[in-house]
Fold these 4 entries.
Entry 1:
Amino acid sequence: MTDKLLLTFNAGSSSVKIGIFEVSGSKPERIGKALVDFSDRPLMLHLTEGPAKFDLPLKAERDDDLAKLLDEVFRELGTHFALDAVIAAGHRIVHGGELFDGPVWLTDETIEQVHSLTDLAPLHQPQALRLIRAVKHLRPQLFQTGSFDTTFHVTQSDLVRRLAIPRALHDRGIKRYGFHGISYRYVARALAEQAPEIAQGKVVIAHLGSGASLCAINEGQSRDTSMGFSTLDGIPMGTRPGWLDPGVLLHLLGPLGKTVDEVEDMLYHQSGLLGVSGLSADTRELLKDRREEARQAIELFTFRIAGEICRLASTLGGLDALVFTAGIGEHQPEIRAEVAERLLWLGAELDDNANRQNALRISTPASRISIWVVPTDEEQMIAEECMSLR
């Protein structure tokens, strides 16, 4: 048993990831992780403790306050870990708006400030708030912190963040924020540890998962990113379209007579890889599928990624390195190879063997752009930021 534990909560739109960390030195060490996937029927707690894995059925139903569900999750976790030793909980929060430029202690006041930003992230912000309030209800004295996906990008210039809309709207907060910042912060640091000379240069990081974006960094700081005002922007994702001509929205809402709710559902849940293929939002399934629609979805995905890399290189004034991370970026060499092939004109050359093995460096010695695979760990970053505030 340990003297101190720390929990992290990573709330997605359809799942909750929980990290269990031991706090015994200067850095939290992960000792377990858990997942509740809201698509499971009945709900299950998927728990990993060291090499052991458990699938534990839950009696609770998903509801708006999550307190009953979390109470049952805590009871199950308590049979594997000494939850009485938990001293803090850190949460991933998607949007920090203009209010936050780093992690914060979640007091009544800061929770209310997080709530005030719900309209900027209607899919993700409410879920994080439900978790924060559920933990507060079950453990009212527990120290809780919030880590934001937007704060890594506060180093971007006003020019990069500005949209070509009336100034009054910009002044009301309608601007480009960028997301996946917790992941980018971790990967930028990991790259600096593995290849410090590369990390100080002009680097594009491709965070490719069911949600996907790219970030241009220089000297470890964010200079530009593919996502803008919302998590819908940028490259195509599993079920989100990425960049979309706003005239399409006017057409849907006008001549086609769609409601705002219908358009929102289409943008968040019916587009992207799923929309193009009509088959799946999962690149693994699409890569195996021989139908033209599946191939078209993959080609559009890699085409847009390569194009966005070039746009970000323009912001940086050059490109020294490309880094792949997250589920697709770390584990799918076929996707990386197709992106790199579209960048041959930039001098990007993959080492096929290193790429197939998901090695750290996957470019050839002759490649003008070094190409890397660096695993991300958002929960580790959340845990460390939580401890930095205690």
Entry 2:
Amino acid sequence: MANVKIPFGKTYLEAEISEDRLAGILVSQAHHYQPESSQEELVRNSLIQPIASPRLRELAKGRKKIVIVASDHTRPVPSKIIAPLLLEEIRAGNPDADITFLIATGFHRPTSREELIVKFGEELVAQERIVLHDCRDESMLISIGKLPSGGDLVINRLAMEAELLIAEGFIEPHFFAGFSGGRKSILPGIVSQVTVLANHCASFIADENARAGIIDGNPLHIDMIDAARQAKLAFILNVVIDSDKKIIKAFAGDMEKAHLAGTEFVGQMATVKAIPADIVITSNGGYPLDQNIYQAVKGMTAAEASCRKGGVIIICAACNDGHGGDAFYRWFAESRGADEVMAKIMAIDADSTIADQWEAQIAARILLNHTVIIVTDQCSHSIVTDMYFKAARTLAEALTMAEEIMGDDAAITVIPDGVSVIVR
């Protein structure tokens, strides 16, 4: 028997699978990568030798208003390490800089003070100015132009008033933007809901290039990179993390070139060959990415790429925050099934995009071809089943359910961390 450990919240779920049924285990090489130095040294060295850019301390000279765009509570960015080193570098060049952390909430709920403390540490939260972006608060926003797709680019006013705009974040495969990090700090991070909706339209999400690991020809990426250019994002510090959320690589410098270097590294580490199976077990990488069903769709896409049509996907996700979006939930709860959800969404043109339809579109795509069982003991199972997923309290229970559908001898592929891999 093979023992598999699947991230779940801040812990793991385990299962015993017979060797003759285990088709394979797909993991990112990043989880086994041995960094050449400590997390702090990796970040500091990237700041000392930025890619295609002067040092941040040089850029900060003479710049009064400096804004650092930082990820929100849904991203496992190790800001406790990154943020102090960014501040140190900026103040080395400009001790009197007026610095603001702008939290890139995108379309998510606001980050709570408790979550900010977990992210940054109590000292930084107490001492630094932190502003939460709100994509629906028009008083915070300003229109600055158009996107290549024709959508309006409406962005946080603080970012546009900055004399130096910086972003921190991390790079991992992203299920429709290709990769996270870089330009994503701007769009969707700190733009208006109007801009997010235009970028996340049905035709873009349905595009064959809107997949994990793909940037070239990806229509969402094209809009995102243009938004970051128009926002004058001058410098980024993006890290790559392993399964323990520890930094294994850092990329600092030019918004485009540093991010590209990071995506090339992640692509090499994360790309795995699909091992088709009737049952695929995966996760959303544990906390903080598995707090709700909305986010868990990301992990489902990795399983989708290795699950035979008609097969069963089991995703372990705590979902302690419930569905993660009322609009997302209602797409399913107020429909008669995934086929109806998909038909309605594909009939919506880009100018009429509805909040969270992109997540519902991808979830429906998966449900049209697979049975999906969500393993959670922290979310009401009625919410799960309202959305046409099946629910189980334990991984063992989910496996029994899957075997009832696919048979006791069905082959099983395991993808312990679904958001960390690019399945080809």
Entry 3:
Amino acid sequence: MQTHTVRVLRSSEASSREQQLAWKIAEVATDSVEVEAEVVDMIVNRVIDNAAVAAASLTRRPVSAARAQAVDHPYAPGATVFGLAPERRSSPEWAAWANGVAVRELDYHDTFLAAEYSHPGDNIPPVVAVAQHAAGRLGLSGREVVRAIATGYEIQIDLARAISLHAHKIDHVAHLGPSVAAALGTLLALPTETVFHAIGQALHTTTATRQSRKGEISSWKAFAPAFAGKLAIEAVDRAIRGENSPSPIYEGEDGVIAWLLDGPEAGYEVSLPGPGEPKRAILDSFTKEHSAEYQAQAWIDLAIRLGRQHPELRDPSNVASVLLRTSNHTHVVIGSGANDPQKYSPEASRETLDHSVPYIFAVALQDGGWDHVTSYAPQRAARPDTVALWRKVATAEDAEWTRRYHSLDPKEQAFGGSVEITLADGSRIVDEIAVADAHPLGARPFRRPDYVRKFRTLAADALEPDEIERFLATAERLPDLTAEELGGLTITAREGYLDAVPLPRGLF
């Protein structure tokens, strides 16, 4: 890896494009290095993972709304839309929008956490949509799709390692816009200068505040990454047509670093692959076994274990208090440190509940499991014994767990914490967990059979058995797919399944 010092440049300072971070990212995107077998295998896993969570979300309202917008933008050759027959094509940016919302809605696909956090699987829908649209004209194959996805993961993860957005209340999709633009540069074999301008435009248009993840969290949480992917496709289209971008976008006196991040005196050290160096960042990311914010994954596993070992904890009358000592990020984003009363409200939205670790810990402790539907049902959240236990759960920052959360050593990095449960009789139960069971260093790391099982489970209601098998067979052949076969990277709902959610009408 090559480390690049990125700082704010005064307008009077001489600076070439080649010195700018956007250009360095573009150089990574246009490096024709091949993808290692281990990375190819993980990319296939994540394509399956995305389709799994998309299948489970097809009838949810935000997904139906996004699908309706895609349907209202038909195009040939175009791209496929999750849930619809493969011959029903939409304009690629709208297909990426609909599919991105389907993937993100349940908060159930992969994650990477460092200085910033991210869901790098959000790169996949726009890459596949553009590949399907351009395959015939450019002769694209599964090989190009794999290379593009490797780039998207690499850039988003490398940016997330180095540059914190949430510290300045900027939403994490500001790293996704540039990563998708870079991925599409790889996919389409664009010149470095074209990719540079696409990255600048994508970053400029995808910076937004974190209010979408604060207070009463709305459906925009699912729309935000899809919107970034859509804008990145449009940025690439403009750049191909010869349009340029604000420059320097990161380093300028009025740029992102100076006014949205650490300020005019700030500097960052961003490490990117050097020329000819393989893109391996996807191997440092991890998927979710449970449908909840990633920082809650380990707490779900610990709560399930404690509930089985100590079933008396499920009765709130036996519990005086529950204290989760954890990282600052977990405490202030999904814990009581957020100071959001909605995180303790039985009337809170699903989006809010999946960002409430007190709620999640209480339900997992009582139920001995976690379900992407029933664990969030209004009647489940309103159950009196759950509300009583839930309101006894609090979080506190612990300096050591914060340090481990930000550690760059994968063997030391941790996303859990320790729990101290004080019982009504004054006795205590203390335990801890560093990473989720499904984490690469967890008790049961996810492998291909786990991804396949997750897909079969989540797709069982939405897809016919033959469609489940067809998609799995197609996805597992991803590197070898021909241009004509790329259209098979979609899922078609069983007949009548989508009738329960008529497509809402809008402007189009």
Entry 4:
Amino acid sequence: MRLLHTSDWHLGRSFHRVSLLQAQRAFLDHLVRTVREQRVDAVLVAGDIYDRAVPPLSAVELFDQTLHRLAGLGVPTVMISGNHDSARRMGVGAGLIDRAGIHLRTDPAGCAVPVLLSDAHGEVACYGLPYLEPALVKDQLGAEGTGHAAVLAAAMDRVRADLAQRPPGTRAVVLAHAFVTGGTPSDSERDITVGGVASVPPETFEGVHYTALGHLHGCQTVNERVRYSGSPLAYSFSEAGHRKTMWLVDLAADGSVDAERIDCPVPRPLARLRGRLADLLADPDLDRHTGSWIEATLTDPVRPQEPMARLLRRFPHVLSLVFEPERAPEDPRDSYAGRLRGRTDQQITEDFVAHVRAGRGPDQEERAVLAAALDQVRLGEEADR
């Protein structure tokens, strides 16, 4: 069986205030064309179809058009909701849409009810695990803990229990939206840390033949049976080095996996330039970036006059300008943003406590209170969806 694995479309998202709607439309045209030309048997979309819970009308219309095109090809499509999606909104009408071969899986209660696909070698049970917010689903799933690993383990126990009752030789595929240990994040994913712990061990998905992951925006292989497709477009300059692709997965009769990357259209390459303004304007080696979207980091000790206007004359698509003056190591004037880069919400709040208490950080009980407060904020955001 041939599967096309994609995720993290983020329909409705812009890139530094530049609309990506046409680029997203071009990607979805490419996806439909790939389904047709590669004789794909089923499409797997592992969450974050939209960029926010209430997407703009243009994004909803694009999604609707794409569903009609996929249904018109007669190719089953299995989709799960991600942490950016509103599961309740996306799940409206799922029962009716299901009859057209578009299978929306947004309810955690249905994680062990597979979409049954078939080929000449028998059935493939395709289980959709929507994004599972631990505080909202742990009791429903009977999880033994409060983190992502616990709720996904409970969901996978249900999947394996259902699979055990199916005919021998049934192949199994799982879609999930999570941060799996071994994956590499970028700057454009929303933090899903709960109690300071977000990662899920890949062993959670043992017992199935292929796990189609969403959430991380870089295409990557956790192991041969557990993969991220990544986002089809770059959504931050941290993705400048990404090759944006989908996975074309051939699932053999014995459950073995052969996967190939299918490149996605690139609307405009990304470039991160760094140096003094005069050097960036004069360096002939940078001519290749005149057509790129650019993040320029200026290291001049003193801020130059009209830096953006001067850069735009050479690089018409500069979108981000950052100032990081050259300074001695440990200079106390190092930017606040730079000190926070790469740190979790928990680490930032603990550092703040230490700062206001003259270096005395929170004890174990206080750290637990901070973690609970952060989880409550996140839970409130999810409940509003």
